From TrEMBL:
Its EC number is 1.11.1.7. This is peroxidase. It catalyses: 2 a phenolic donor + H2O2 = 2 a phenolic radical donor + 2 H2O. Removal of H(2)O(2), oxidation of toxic reductants, biosynthesis and degradation of lignin, suberization, auxin catabolism, response to environmental stresses such as wounding, pathogen attack and oxidative stress. These functions might be dependent on each isozyme/isoform in each plant tissue. Residues 1-109 form the Plant heme peroxidase family profile domain.
């Protein structure tokens, strides 16, 4: 189930970290709205689960990142940048799906 302020105990700075990185990204690159399209494509099939980030690995064919509708998506590098920073502060706590949602929200704002 959804819970407001889900990371308040495990990663209380998650929103501040994402917001500051998105602000920095936006000041350098005005293509932040790419996160909105990335979020849309992620949520399109079976919900917002970060599956758009799946690529073929270890013999498993996911075809999500390589599928025709997703080939023109931009912003993977931006989400990776945010994820790397979150992993430095709170390793293995914040999901990629939540990172995409927060980045998209801040990209809109």
């Amino acid at each position: 189930s959804l819970e407001y302020d889900f990371y308040k105990d495990t990663c209380p700075d998650v929103e501040t970290i994402v917001r500051s990185i998105m602000a920095r990204i936006y000041s350098d690159h005005k293509d932040v709205p790419a996160a909105i399209r990335l979020f849309f494509h992620d949520c399109f099939i079976k919900g917002c689960d970060a599956s758009v980030f799946l690529d073929d690995s270890n013999g498993i064919k996911s075809h999500r990142r390589e599928s025709i509708p997703n080939k023109t998506l931009k912003g993977f590098d931006k989400i990776d940048m945010i994820t790397e920073e979150l992993e430095k502060v709170f390793p293995r706590v914040v999901s990629c799906a939540d990172t995409i949602a927060l980045a998209t929200r801040d990209g809109i704002v």
